[in-house]
Amino acid sequence: MEEDRLRALLEEVRLGTTPIDEAVGRLRDLPYEDLGFAKLDHHRSLRNGFPEVIYCQGKTLPQITAIAGRLRERSHKVLATRATPEVAAVVRSEWPDAVYHEAARIVVVPGAQSEPPPAPNCRGTVLVVTAGTADVPVAEEAAVTAREMGSPVETLYDVGVAGLHRLLDHKERLFSASVLIVVAGMEGALASVVGGLVRQPVIAVPTSVGYGASFQGLAALLTMLNSCASGVSVMNIDNGFGAGYFAHLVNRM
Amino acid sequence: MEEDRLRALLEEVRLGTTPIDEAVGRLRDLPYEDLGFAKLDHHRSLRNGFPEVIYCQGKTLPQITAIAGRLRERSHKVLATRATPEVAAVVRSEWPDAVYHEAARIVVVPGAQSEPPPAPNCRGTVLVVTAGTADVPVAEEAAVTAREMGSPVETLYDVGVAGLHRLLDHKERLFSASVLIVVAGMEGALASVVGGLVRQPVIAVPTSVGYGASFQGLAALLTMLNSCASGVSVMNIDNGFGAGYFAHLVNRM
Amino acid sequence: MEEDRLRALLEEVRLGTTPIDEAVGRLRDLPYEDLGFAKLDHHRSLRNGFPEVIYCQGKTLPQITAIAGRLRERSHKVLATRATPEVAAVVRSEWPDAVYHEAARIVVVPGAQSEPPPAPNCRGTVLVVTAGTADVPVAEEAAVTAREMGSPVETLYDVGVAGLHRLLDHKERLFSASVLIVVAGMEGALASVVGGLVRQPVIAVPTSVGYGASFQGLAALLTMLNSCASGVSVMNIDNGFGAGYFAHLVNRM
Amino acid sequence: MEEDRLRALLEEVRLGTTPIDEAVGRLRDLPYEDLGFAKLDHHRSLRNGFPEVIYCQGKTLPQITAIAGRLRERSHKVLATRATPEVAAVVRSEWPDAVYHEAARIVVVPGAQSEPPPAPNCRGTVLVVTAGTADVPVAEEAAVTAREMGSPVETLYDVGVAGLHRLLDHKERLFSASVLIVVAGMEGALASVVGGLVRQPVIAVPTSVGYGASFQGLAALLTMLNSCASGVSVMNIDNGFGAGYFAHLVNRM
Amino acid sequence: MEEDRLRALLEEVRLGTTPIDEAVGRLRDLPYEDLGFAKLDHHRSLRNGFPEVIYCQGKTLPQITAIAGRLRERSHKVLATRATPEVAAVVRSEWPDAVYHEAARIVVVPGAQSEPPPAPNCRGTVLVVTAGTADVPVAEEAAVTAREMGSPVETLYDVGVAGLHRLLDHKERLFSASVLIVVAGMEGALASVVGGLVRQPVIAVPTSVGYGASFQGLAALLTMLNSCASGVSVMNIDNGFGAGYFAHLVNRM
Amino acid sequence: MEEDRLRALLEEVRLGTTPIDEAVGRLRDLPYEDLGFAKLDHHRSLRNGFPEVIYCQGKTLPQITAIAGRLRERSHKVLATRATPEVAAVVRSEWPDAVYHEAARIVVVPGAQSEPPPAPNCRGTVLVVTAGTADVPVAEEAAVTAREMGSPVETLYDVGVAGLHRLLDHKERLFSASVLIVVAGMEGALASVVGGLVRQPVIAVPTSVGYGASFQGLAALLTMLNSCASGVSVMNIDNGFGAGYFAHLVNRM
Amino acid sequence: MEEDRLRALLEEVRLGTTPIDEAVGRLRDLPYEDLGFAKLDHHRSLRNGFPEVIYCQGKTLPQITAIAGRLRERSHKVLATRATPEVAAVVRSEWPDAVYHEAARIVVVPGAQSEPPPAPNCRGTVLVVTAGTADVPVAEEAAVTAREMGSPVETLYDVGVAGLHRLLDHKERLFSASVLIVVAGMEGALASVVGGLVRQPVIAVPTSVGYGASFQGLAALLTMLNSCASGVSVMNIDNGFGAGYFAHLVNRM
Amino acid sequence: MEEDRLRALLEEVRLGTTPIDEAVGRLRDLPYEDLGFAKLDHHRSLRNGFPEVIYCQGKTLPQITAIAGRLRERSHKVLATRATPEVAAVVRSEWPDAVYHEAARIVVVPGAQSEPPPAPNCRGTVLVVTAGTADVPVAEEAAVTAREMGSPVETLYDVGVAGLHRLLDHKERLFSASVLIVVAGMEGALASVVGGLVRQPVIAVPTSVGYGASFQGLAALLTMLNSCASGVSVMNIDNGFGAGYFAHLVNRM
Fold first, then answer.
1. Are the C-beta atoms of residues F169 and F222 closer than 8 Å to each other?
2. What pTM does this model have?
3. A208 touches C at CB < 8 Å
4. Helices (H), C49-117
5. Helix-helix angle F240-251:F136-149, to 10 degrees
6. Residue E175 touches partner F, C-beta closer than 8 Å
7. First and final CA of chain H: distance in angstroms?
8. Which of G81, G236, G237, G241 best tests the D interface by mutation, with the highest count of D CBs <10 A?
9. Are the Cβ atoms of A37 and C169 closer than 8 angstroms?
10. C23 contacts chain D (CB < 8 A)
C-alpha cells in the first residue's frame, strides 16, 4: 500500500471522518474479486499498467469465459494465451471484436473503453529472431504480447547458425533494435551468436523443437544459460509470452 | 562491417587510392590481437562500449597478467572476475591503481587515459536484492559489474521470503529502482515474490547456496525459470557478472 | 500383534482351552482376505482407524468393484481415489449411496453400519491453499480426504505469490488453521511464503501444473524440499490424497 | 500485523495521542535489526514462539558470533546448526554456558533471562529412528532441535529393514510415540515400513549416506516421496533440523 | 565353437575326408539363418539350451509370424513376449496349439517334436512376489518365462510393505523357495525387506507403476540398486522376462 | 565469401564497370530466398555440394511442398526426411518422379536438370550395421542419405552382441568397408565391439529402441560416448540422416 | 520365528515349565545386541549362514573396532569392507590373525573357534572378469567376498571389448564357470558380450571408472540394465561386495 | 582371424606338418601378453596400424612403467595420455628420448626401431579449433594425438562465437582443412557455427569448462549432439584423444 494513501486514510481517522472499522476494512480492501476458482487481480493493471493475462492451458472453456467476462466488465484489455482454436471461437462468439492470432495462439479482447490508452513511450523496436521455421509459434507469442503491450515489434525468422550468412545479412536490423528476443530449439546456438554481435539486451527463449537428446528443450535451455556472450538472459522453455512481456518492460521508457 | 566504412573503402578502391590487395586486407582486418593462447578483442569495446572482461577461473597467473597488460596498453579498463586474492595481489603489484572488490571477487584495472569516460545516460538505479547472507558474493559480483559499467547501484540483502515483512518493509526501494537483480539460492522463491510486486524488469540469479536436493543451484534455477510472475528472466547459476552486465544494458538509455 | 492379545492367548494355551495347533494358527491369522489379485487389509482399519483406500489408477473396473464389495461387506467406509467418471458411475450403480467428488476424483462409499462413527477429536481446521486454478483438483483430493477422515476443512484457492496481496489479505485464515496444505505447481514458491508466515505445520504438495522446465512437477518439488522456511514438509507430486491423510493425522488429538 | 494491535493504534490516532507520522512509522516498524550482511528477525520469536536459528554453513566465524551476540542481547535462545568444532569453540569462549551437541553439530546458547520459559504442552514423545549408524548425525540434529524446542524426544537407532526383527522388536516404542522421524540413507525403505506399521505421522528424512547409484541421497529421497504407506511426509536430504522443527510443530498442543 | 567339434573337424582335414574349402566354410558356418530383417539364432538353443525369444514390441505382425515360422520349422519352442491380443490371435490362427498367457503378455508356441524335452534338474521353486496388484503383469511375465524354461514357479501377490503382516504371514513360503523374484513399483521397498528376511538369491524387478516422482520406475530402480540387504540383484524396469530367465539360470542344477 | 570472387568484384569497382551501390549490394547478396516462414539456402549447394534437406517433422504439408517447389525450380535435388506416408503421397502427386523410401521415411525429389551429376570420387563403401530389427528404420535413413549423396552403401542388420558369432561371421565385410555406421538401441554395446574390431572410422547412432531404463535412447547414447574403443564418434539419438551425411563426408575424396 | 521353535515353546507353556512372562520375553528375544550406535545382528549368521559384515565407510575407527570386538567374542568371522590401510592397521593391531586384502579393501578377522566351518557344497567356480585394469579393486572386493563365504573363485582381468580376441581366447574359462561376475566401467559393454556367450548367470557390476559423460558409473549402469543379452542381472555401481555375496548365494548348493 | 592364415594352417594340418594339438593352440594363440593386471594387445598395432595407448588416469606409476616397458620391448611407439608431470618425469627417467607434451598431458615414447615408419598418405590437414583459452588442454591432446599418428595438424584457438569476426577472419583456414576438430565448453555453440560454414567433417568435443548449469560439460555435449548443422559428430566430454584419433582415421587415405 502506497504511503500517500495511507497518510490520507490516517488523516481521515484522526479527523473522525472515517470510523475505525471502515479504516480497518479499507486497509485490507485491495481491489480484487473472487470467482471461486480464480481470484481476479484488477489491481494488477494499476500496479503493472498492463492487462490481465489468462493462461488457458488447463482451464475449462466456462472458466476462461467467466474470467474474461469479469475483466471485460472492468474495461480491461484481456490476453488469453495458449488459446486453441476452440477457445478462440468461443471467446469471439462472446466478444466479436476479439482477435485471434492463430500462429501465436493468443486471443486479444480489447478493453471496453471507447478511447485507446496513450501509446507508451518506447526506446525503439523489439526484434524477434528465430533459428528455424518450427520456432515460429513461440516467436509469434512473444511478438503479439510485446505489440499488445505497446512496443513496436519486428520479426526475422529462420536465420539459424547452420547458414550464418542468412543472419549476417541482417546485421543492420539486429543493430538497430532496442531489445532482441532470440527463439531457438535444437542446440539453441543462435542466442550466443546474436548476443556476441549486438550491444542490446538479448532475451533467449529455448523451444521444445528437436528430437533425441534435445530432451524437449533442455539442450537449448542449457545452451542459453551457459552462453559465452554477455548480455543474454533466459526464459523458460517455449515461454514466448514471458519473453514478449519482459522485452516490453525493457523497451518502455 | 558497417556500411559506411565499406562504402568509403570501395570509394578509395574506385579512386585507386587504395590498392586491391590492401582493400582485401582491410576488409578482413578487424582490430584484435593474438597472444597465442587468447585472441584479445579490442574491437569489442567499440562494438559494445564496454571494457574487456577476463574470466580468471581456469587461467594461469601469467595468462591473466599478459591479457590485462595488452588491454591496458590500449587504454581499456579491465574487469577480472572470479579473481582470487592471489590473482588480485599479482595484478595490483603490476598496476597499483587496480582495486580489488574482495566480496565480489573482481579486480578493476582502470583505463590508462587521464580523463574518465562520460557517464552513461541511465534510466535510474539498479537494485540488487538477496535472499540470504550466503548469496552476497554473487550479488556483489553483480553490483560491482553494473557500477563499473556506469549504472548507479543499490543493494538490499537478506530479505528472503521466510520473513516476508523484511522484504515488504522496503517496498519503496523495490518500486523506485529501474531494474532489479534478485539473487537467491535454496528454493529461490524470492524472485517470484519480487516479480509479483514490481513493474520493472527483474533479473533472477540462482546461486549454488543450499544443500541436499538443491543440487548446487538446480532447484533455484528451475524455480526461477518457472516463475509464475511475469517480467522475470534468468541467468546461469552464480552468474553475478552476467546479471550486472545485463542490468546495465537495460538501464542505460 | 499387541502384547495383551498375546498374553491372553498364551493363558488359554496354559489352561489347555486352546490347543497348540490352533494357537499356532491364531498367532499367524491376521484378519485379511485374499481376492487373488489383491489382499484386502481389513486389519488396517483396526491398526489405523481409517477406511481402506482404493487407488483406482491401473486397476480394472471389475477389480475395483470386487475390492469395494468385500470392504463394504465388512462395513468399512471406502475411498476410491483417482476415480474417473466411468469408475464413479459403475460404483454408484452398485452402491447408490456412494458420492462422487468430481473435482477431487474421489468416490466415497459410506460404511454399512447404521450409525456414524463418533467424530474424532480434532485440534482445529485443515486449510487447503492453492497457488492457481489449475492446482484445484489436487487440492480437492486433499480436502475431501481430510474431511472424510473427520477433520474440518477449509479452502483458499488462487492466492499465488505473483499477487502477494491476495494471500496477505487472508492472514487471519492462515493464522487460525491448525494445519495447512499448500498446493502449487510451476515454481511452487507459495509453500515457502506461507511457511514463513504461519507457526503451524505446512504440508507442501507440488503439482505437475506448468510447462517447459517445470518437468512435470519436478521444479515445484525441488522448490518445496529446499524451502528456506522451517516447518514445511513435502508430499509426492500431485499427491493430494497423501496430504489430506497426513494433515488429518496431525490434526486429530 | 495482528488486527488487535492495528485497532489499538488507529484508536490512538483517532484520539490524537499518536501523531500520524509516528503511526506511519509504527505501522512499518517491525522489530528486526540490520547487521549489514544479515537482517535479524527478532519478530520471529513472537510470530513462531521459537528461537532464531543460525545456519552456520557458508557463514564466517565473525558473522556467526555477531548474529549470536545480537540475538543474545535480546534474550533469545540461539540454535547454531551445522556448527563445526571450531565454530563451537569460538561460541563457547564467548558464552561459556553454551552447549555443543557434537554428534548433532548444534551449539545451543541459552537465552539470557533468568527463568526458563514454561514447558510447551505436548501430545507426547517424538521418536527418532535410523536405519543405520551412519544416519546418526542427521538423526541427532533432529533430536536436539525438537528437544530444544520443548518436545520430549527418544531415539531408536540402527533398525534398518535388512534385519526386520530389530525393528519389530520395538513395536511398542513405535506405537507409543506421538510423532516419528525416520532417518535413512541408501534405499530409504525404512520410512515405508514404519509408515505401514504406525498410525502416527511419520516424517521421513533421506540422508546422503550410500554410494554408487544412491546419488548423494537422491535414491532415498525418491523412495520416501513414493512411499506406498500413507502418513509419510518428506524433508530435504540430510535436513535433520527441519525434521525436528516440523515434528515439534506437530507435537505441541 | 567347442573344442571337441574343432578337433573332430581338424582330424577330418588331416585324414583328407574333408576338403580345406569345406573346412573353412564349416568353421564359419554357424547355424543361423537370415530372414533379411532378422538373423535367427538357431544355434542359441544349442549354446543356451533354451528356445528363441521374440520380443514383439516394435515388430510388425508379418515379421513376428515369419520369425516364429522358421523357428517352428526347426522344432524350437518359441516364446513371444510383450504380445498384444492381436499378436496372440494371429499366432494362434497359425499354430492352434499356441497358448496365450494374457496377464503375462506371452504367447508360447510349443516345439514341433512329439516328445517333450526331459525336465531340467532344478534346485527348487521360484517364488514371484509383488508389492501390489498393478505389478502383476510384470510378475506374470517372469512366472511364465521361468515355468516355460522348466522351473517350478509359485506366486505371492500384493504383499507390499505398507501392511507388513501380509508379508510376514508367508515367511515359510519365502524361506522355502530356492530363488525369489520381487516385483515392485512406487518406492520398491519390498525388495529390501524380502532380501533381509531370506538367505536365497533375490532378483528385484522395478516396475513403472507409480506417479509423480516415481519417474516411470526410476525411483523403484534406485531403491533396489541401493538395497541395504545383501543378496539382491536388479533387472531393468518392467523386465519380467529377464527376471524369469535369470531365475531359471540360478535354479537349474 | 570466397577471396577470388571478392578480388574480381573489387577489380570491377576499380575499373568502374561496377558502380559502388551495386558492389555494396552484391557483397551482401547471397543467393537465398525468403518464403516468409523459411529462408531457403540455395547457396548451400554451392558451399556444401549437396542438396537442401527438408526436415518434415513439425512442418505443415503446404510448407513442405512450397519449400520443395522453390528448390526444385532451382534444379536442386531435394531430400525430405522424417516424411510420413501422407507427406510422401502429396509430394509424389506434385512430382511424379519423386521416390519414397518408406523404411527410411525419406522422399527424394530428383533435380530438374536432364543429366545426372558426375558421381563423386569415393574411398569405398559405407557399411550400415544394426544390432536389432527395430533399429532398421534409423539405419535405412542413414543408408538412403549416404547413397543419395553419392556413396556406395551396404547394410548388415540384426548382428547385436547377444549372439556375437552373427557379427564375427561378417568380419570381412566389416574390414572391407571404408566407413561404418553402427545403429543400436537398448544398451548400444555393438558400437564398442565393432570399434574394437575395425580400423576404419565408426559412426555410432543410438536409437530410442528399448524400454525401462533405456530412457528413450539415453542409455545407448551414454554407452557410445563412453566407448572404450578408439575411433568411434557419436550422433544424436535416432539421427540416421546425420550419420549418413557425415559418413559421406568422410567417404568422398 | 521358525514354526518348530514356536511349537516347542508353546508346549512348554502348556506344560507349565515356562511361565507366561518368560514366554512373552522369549517370543520377543531375538539374539541381537545393542552397542548404542549399532545393533549387532548375531542372529544373521543363523538366518543367513554368513558372518556379519562391517561397511567401514562413514564409521569411525572406535566404532569399527567396537563392532568387530563384540562379533569376535561371539566367534563370528568378520568382513570389514571399504577398509582403508588405517582401518586395517588398527584392526590388525587388535587381532593379529586378521588379514588385509589391500586391493579389495577388505579386512578379514577369522572366527574365534578352533575348527574351521565345513566347506559349503558349491556348484562350481565363480569367475570374476574385468574390462580394464582400473576395474580391478571392485573385482577384488567381489572375489575376496565370494571366497571368504566359501566359493572357489577365479579371475580374468583386462579383457574389455575393445580387443575382443582377448576375451574370446578364454571362452573355455567363461564356459566352465558356474557363475560369472563382470566388472566394467566406461561403457560397460563387456556384460552384454559375456552374457551373450555363456549360459550361466552373469552378475554385472558397473564401476565409476571413466570420465566425461560416464557420470561416475551411470553410463555403465544403464548399459548393463539394458543388456540385450538375457541372463544378466545388475548390482549398484562399484558394489563388488554385493556381487561376490550374490554370486556365492547362487553358487552354493 | 584372417582367412589366408587360416587356409595356410589347415593346409599344414592336411600335410601333417602341423600336429592337431598345435593347430588347436595356434588357432587360439593371438599375440597378446599378460602382465597380470593388464593384457597388452600387441596385435592391435597390426589390426589398427597404431601404437598402444596407455590411459594413465587411475593407474599407478609402476603399472604405467611396466606396461610401457613391455610395449617398448616390442618396438612399439607408446602414447601415455592424461599423464601428470610426475608420470612424465618417471617415464622420461626410464626412456630419456620420451617427450612430454605438457599442455596436452601426453608423453610419447618413440618406438625402438631405428627407422621411422613411412609417413601415412593423408588427405590434408587436421585443424583443431577452440572456443576459449580454457579449452586448450583438450585441444592439445587432440592435436598431439593426430600428429603422432601421422596427420599434419594446425590449430586455431580462442575463436568462440561471442566475437564472431575472430572466427570469420579465418575462413580460409577453416575451408582448407580436410577435417576439423571443434573443442568448446560452456554452451558449445562453436561446433554448430563451424559445421554450418564448412563442407568437411567436423568432430565436436565438449569440454567440462564452464560453471553453474554447464554441469561439467553436459550443456556443451547436448548442444553438440543437437547441432542444427549437418556434418557434425560428437566425442565424449574432454575426450581430446578420441577426437585426434578419429580425425586421423578420417584424414588418412
1. no
2. 0.83
3. yes
4. 61-73, 85-94
5. 40
6. no
7. 24
8. G236
9. no
10. no
CA distance D167 to D198: 12
In whole angstroms, give the CA distance from residue D245 to residue D236: 13
Q: How do beta strands E106-109 and A39-40 pair?
A: unpaired
- Output the nine-digit C-alpha cell for G87: 582401518
- For residue E219, CA distances in Å to D188, D220, E185, E211, H194 come to 11, 9, 8, 10, 41
Query: pLDDT tens, E155-191?
Result: 999 999 888 888 888 888 998 999 999 999 998 999 9
Burial B34-49 (b: 16+ CB within 10 A, else e): eeebbbbbbebbebbe
Q: How far apart are CA D107 and CA C95, in angstroms?
A: 60
Exposure string of F79-93, with b = 16+ CB inside 10 Å and e = fewer, is bbbbbeeebbebbee
Cα–Cα distance measured from residue E136 to residue E129, given in angstroms and rounded to the nearest whole number:
9
Burial of A155: CB neighbours in 10 Å, binned 0-12, 13-18, 19+? middle
Long-range contacts of B17-22 (CB under 8 A, 24+ apart): B20/F7, B20/F10, B20/F11, B20/F14
Residue C197 · residue C190 · CB < 8 Å: no
Query: What ipTM was predicted for this assembly?
Result: 0.81
Residue E7, C-alpha cell as written in the block: 578337433
Q: In whole angstroms, give the CA distance from residue B39 to residue H222.
A: 26
Q: Would the CB atoms of C222 and B215 count as touching at under 8 Å?
A: yes
CB contacts of G163 in chain H (<8 Å) are: 32, 39, 41, 43-44
**In the prediction, which pLDDT does B31 show?**
39
Amino acid (one-letter) located at C176: S
CA distances, B41 to each of A228, B47, B51, E144 (Å)? 14, 10, 10, 69
Cα distance between residue C98 and residue E25, in whole Å = 75
For F31-89, the pLDDT digits (tens) are: 345 555 666 554 444 445 566 788 898 788 988 988 888 877 766 788 999 999 999 99
Q: Residue E96, class by beta-carbon neighbours within 10 Å (0-12 exposed, 13-18 middle, 19+ buried)? A: exposed
Taking chain E, what is the end-to-end CA distance rounded to the nearest angstrom?
23
Looking at the DSSP bridge assignments, the partners of residue H99 are: H108
What is the identity of the amino acid at C71? Answer: L
Maximum CA extent, chain G:
73
DSSP state letters, chain F: --HHHHHHHHHHHHHTSS-HHHHHHHHH--S-EE-SS-EE-THHHHHHSS-EEEE-TT--HHHHHHHHHHHHHTT--EEEES--HHHHHHHHHH-TT-EEETTTTEEEE--SSSSPPPPP-BSS-EEEEESSGGGHHHHHHHHHHHHHHT--EEEE-S--GGGHHHHHTTHHHHHH-SEEEEEE-TT-THHHHHHHH-SS-EEEEE-S---GGGGGGHHHHHHHHT-SSSSEEE--TT-HHHHHHHHHHHHB-
Q: Is H36 helix (H, G, I), strand (E, B) or coil?
A: coil
Residue numbers of C between 87 and 116 with CB closer than 8 Å to D:
none
The residues facing C106 across adjacent strands are C101
Taking only the tens place, the pLDDT of each residue in B135-164 is: 999 999 999 999 999 999 999 999 988 888
Q: How far apart are CA E202 and CA E230, in angstroms?
A: 9
How many CA atoms are closer than 13 Å to the CA of A249, on its beta-carbon side? Answer: 26
Q: How far apart are CA H211 and CA H219, in angstroms?
A: 10
Q: Residue A7: how many CA atoms within 13 Å on its side-chain side?
A: 6
Q: How far apart (Å, rounded) are the C-alpha atoms in residues H202 and H195?
A: 6
Which residue, chain included where needed, has cell 583505463? Answer: B111
**Burial class of residue G172 (count of CB atoms within 10 Å of its CB; 0-12, 13-18, 19+):** exposed
* Bridge partners for E206 per DSSP: E184
Q: What is the pLDDT of residue C13?
A: 81
The dihedral region occupied by B212, where left means phi > 0, alpha psi between -120 and 50, and beta the remainder, is left
Alpha carbon distance, N-terminus to C-terminus of chain C: 24
**Residue-level pLDDT at A30:** 35
The secondary structure of chain B in percent helix, strand, coil, rounded to multiples of 5, reads 45, 15, 35
